Amino acid sequence: MSDSDEMNSAILQEVVFYEDGEPIIDGEPGDLKFRIRTAAHDRFKREGNDLHTTITITLVQALVGFEKTVKQLDDHLVDISSKGITRPKEVRKFKGEGMPLHFSNKKGDLYVTFEVLFPNSLTDDQKTKIKAVLG
After folding, report:
1. CA–CA distance, 52 with 108 (Å, rounded to integer)
2. pLDDT tens profile 20-67
3. What is the pTM of this model?
4. Which CATH number goes with the domain that contains 68?
5. Residue 110 burial class via C-beta count within 10 angstroms: exposed 0-12, middle 13-18, buried 19 and up
6. Cα separation of 69 and 130, whole Å?
7. Based on the domain organization, do 86 and 97 belong to the same domain?
8. Residue 71 and residue 33 share a domain
9. Contacts with 90 (C-beta within 8 Å, 6 or more apart), sequence order
10. Which residue in 44, 78, 102, 116 has the fewest CB atoms around it within 10 Å?
11. How far apart are the C-alpha atoms of 9 and 116, rounded to whole Å?
12. CA angle, residues 49, 101, 99, in degrees to nearest 5
């Protein structure tokens, strides 16, 4: 991966410390600048200070609810359980569970998209039972 490809796939942030750099000859000190490149993550996608992730649940879990947690980047757990119906591609927002805002106590949000895993096939008996319950 080239430097330009790496920069395109990562978030670049610049932090400036004003007048903390080397002084110019017979002059004022310069600014000290750090460029921070955030690497891609295998479970989370970052957009600003918000994090996005996708969780797969079964069809039964989508219909009757589920208990799940998401392990955050700092290892704390976020409860994403549901007692109701979860639709395929539904997105839920968890306020304050994203990345910390620079120079602030606030955090971005976590957005969880739910993928529903459908069975590949059903037996005739399963079809009959589903029709009896849902039909």
Report:
1. 11
2. 666 677 667 777 777 777 767 778 998 888 999 999 999 999 999 999
3. 0.70
4. 2.60.260.20
5. buried
6. 29
7. yes
8. no
9. 113, 114
10. 102
11. 28
12. 45
